[in-house]
Amino acid sequence: MAWERIHGHDAIRRQFQAAFARGRLGHAYLFTGPSGVGKRLFALELAKALLCESPLTPLTACDHCSSCALVTAETHPDVHVSRKLEDKNEYTVDVIAEVCKFLQLTPTRGTRKICLLEDGDDINEQSANKFLKNLEEPYPGTTIVILSTSADAQLPTIRSRCQIVPFSPLGAEAITKILAENEITDRAKADRLVRLAGGSAGQALALSDDAVWDFRATLLQALGSPRIASAPLVEKWSEFVESAGKESPAQRARASVVLRLLADLLSQAMRLAHGGGGDGLEPMEAEKLQRFADKVGVDGLVELLEKCVEADYWIDRRVQLPLLAELVVEKISRSVA
Amino acid sequence: MKVKCQRDWLLTACQLVGVAVAARTTKPVLSCIKAIAQDDALFLMATDLEIGVRYELRGIEVKRAGAALLQPNKLISILRESSDADITLDSDENGTLVRTSTGRFNLPGGDANEFPDIPAFDDGGQYHEINAGLLRSMIKRTAFAADKTEATARWAVTGVLWEAEEKKARLVATDTRRLALTEGVADVHGGVKDAKTPSHLVPQKAVQLLERSLADDGELIRIVLKPNEAMFQTGRALIHTRLVEGRFPPYRDIIPKKPGVTLAIPTAEFLSRVRQAAIMTDDESKRVEFKFEPGKLTLNAQGGADHGSGEVTMDLPDYQGGEIDIAFNPQYLIDMLRAVESEPTLTLEMTDGQKPAVFRLGADYLYLVMPLTG
To answer: Where in this chain does the entry annotate a coiled-coil region (chain A) (predicted)?
Structure first.
């Protein structure tokens, strides 16, 4: 499989292979782009290719040697994958200290080592300062990859020490392929997921859960009703989010999916309010959204969309999820009233 | 994998290998011991990706060759609680069944291919051998001086410099305020490194693990230093470690060539006096003033405003040199004096209160400590 499992980023792959062939591979890269477009997958494939014991062609992993197996299992001694602690908003200094320690030890299985920092947006100044010396001048054979949603989200001290590699949102074809690889082959469902995913395969897969669509029906039902009772909807919203699992990251990811669903419904309502047709909506759904759009008006819809964006921002800032549900539902309820 | 082996052998092996199991890791596979059964041997290995231990148990009844992941804590508890002479381990993809005469224990398993193997000992014809007793003493007398703060600017000094020359090995450690150097007789095979070879900086963790693994004073420890790794083969286990990157400071340049005065110091008495004087230092100053004068040494400690002060004296009947006032962090002296406590006397070389002082034990041990100034 090797690079074939990475969809939609062929140009970036070619760029790396060309740099590798010229012996001009950089020591630090900042992969930027929306979440779910394959930055992490690409970085691990790059690590695998760099460490492969019998590469098929230059910088292409064989996927069969023990080194490839260890990178896939994330237990390769020369690959360090770092992320912030689950209960923290930011990279703590001790997590960065582990990164520094890895960078100060020699590679064991060859001459290269790769360090991947997954939550690049959450490196605070204190942690960055601890890490800058290593980022600027790592030992030969070191490749550091930082994943980030945007170069602007980085401290200037980090940004200036990395080569920036922008990852674009994936096209419909790439997402459809990824969905097919995950056994989602129903054309109508796939099209709907592609439309909702906004170029993120990760979001498309998160949205593919049937429970998500059941909840979407609940949301749609609420929007189409003459009066929206806040408390029951907040309760259903919270129950649905909590059903994602006991762990906070799973619940936050689910909360983000709910907001995406809601934002999509509001966008569809906006389109209907401007006299357009619903994109992929069934007649009954379009009818409910039309009623909602008529009641709320274009300005109201804009405000609701802004509220969704604000709530999505707060999800990452660890605000209690039931409070966010309440914030959004109350706003909808007041708009209708 | 299916093996039958002696319970106490396996217990000893698991306990020894278990020290390298990653203490806190996000990778469950690294919290396991990997076992490989082949021919008449069972290989046990553990790693935290920095150091790894590989232990070989010979004379095992291997009923089915293969590999398995074993949970060390549970397995060690089972082995400890059982009183059987022999025990059977039967592993498949679902886990391991541990069979004793009175019990059956199912341990969950994992994919053994996800475990990074510890390479077998490969000296490539270039290695050196040191007597275990001597090596233990060399480690004890140097490793404490390595930097423990892991400050980013000078990672190289967090490791212990390991050098092999003709007929001797040398260990050097420093935190830039003190430096310990020890040499010992080594049987060097396959030539010595040339000047272009990078320094071999062994992480403290590996050195400490090696020290703990040295059981029998008489055995010979075989050491291989490669550009990226070091391997230590003891009678019972192979310890494998990555090295610390970077260049060790040019330590030879800072060792004073011509000291002003040289005097003999009784080790135990000096340790006792330094410890007494250190009582009155506080966390902020950590400073003891040493006044050397003919026949006598006076140690003065002055803490902060509310901390009081202390004065301790010690006779130095053989010292007839000039007066020298010098100040040290007492902990730097205590660390060294504890490591050489068994030696009756040390030689102290000084020039003045501004230049480094050097403690020596014959030609094989040197401890340099920077004085506190100001």
So the answer is: none
Is there a single domain that holds both residue B262 and residue B245? Answer: no
Max alpha carbon distance in chain B (Å)?
A: 77
B119 falls within a domain = no
pLDDT at residue number A22 = 93
pLDDT tens profile A54-70: 998 899 999 999 999 99
**What pLDDT is attached to residue A130?**
85
For A172: left if phi > 0, alpha if psi spans -120 to 50, otherwise beta; the answer is alpha
Q: Chain B residues with CB inside 8 Å of A67's CB?
A: none
End-to-end Cα spacing for chain B: 67
Buried/exposed B194-204: b ≥16 CB within 10 Å, e otherwise: eeeeebbbbbb
Contacts of A126 (CB under 8 A, 6+ apart): A93
- ipTM score for this prediction: 0.79
Same domain, B246 and B264: no
Same-domain pairing of B151 and B104: no
**A119, A118, A146: which is closest to A132 by C-alpha?**
A146
Dihedral of the CA atoms A239, A245, A250, A251 (nearest 10)? Answer: 20
Give the closest-approach CA distance of B111 to chain A in angstroms.
9
Measured between CB atoms, which of B150, B227, B243 is closest to A101?
A: B150
Tell me which of B57, B92, B114 is where a domain ends.
B114
Containing domain of residue B100, as a range? 2-114
Q: Given its phi and psi angles, is residue B246 left (phi above 0), alpha (psi -120 to 50 degrees) or beta?
A: left
Same domain (yes/no): B191, B290: no
Q: Write down all domains in chain A, each with its CATH number in brackets.
A: 10-166 (3.40.50.300), 209-336 (1.20.272)
Mean pLDDT of chain A: 89
Write down the residue that tokens 């100060």 correspond to.
Answer: A104
Report pTM: 0.83
**Cross-chain residue pair A108–B242, CB shorter than 8 Å:** yes
Q: Which two tokens stand for residue B288?
A: 């003891």
Q: Which of residues 80-99 of A touch B (CB under 8 A)?
A: 97
Q: To probe the interface with A, which of B242, B243, B248 has the most A CB atoms within 10 Å?
A: B242
- A97 and B27: CB-CB below 8 Å? no
Pairing of strands A28-32, A163-166: parallel
Q: B206-234 pLDDT, tens per residue?
A: 999 999 888 788 899 999 998 889 999 98
Decide if B96 contacts B60 (C-beta within 8 A): no
Which two tokens mark B12?
């000893």
Contact of A297 with A337, CB cutoff 8 Å: no
pLDDT digits (tens, 9 = 90+) for B112-135: 888 988 888 888 888 999 999 999
Q: Can you list the alpha helix ranges (DSSP code H) found in chain B?
A: 7-18, 72-81, 132-142, 204-213, 267-278, 330-339
Tokens of B330: 């007492």
E-state strands within A118-197: 142-148, 163-166
Q: pLDDT, tens digit, for every residue of A212-255?
A: 889 998 998 888 888 888 888 999 999 999 988 877 778 888 89
Closest approach of chain A CAs to the CA of B22, in angstroms?
Answer: 12
Residues B160 and B110 in one domain: no
Strand partners, B37: B42, B66
Residue B67's nearest CA partner among B25, B115, B19 is B115
Backbone angles phi, psi at B291, to 5 degrees: -115, 110
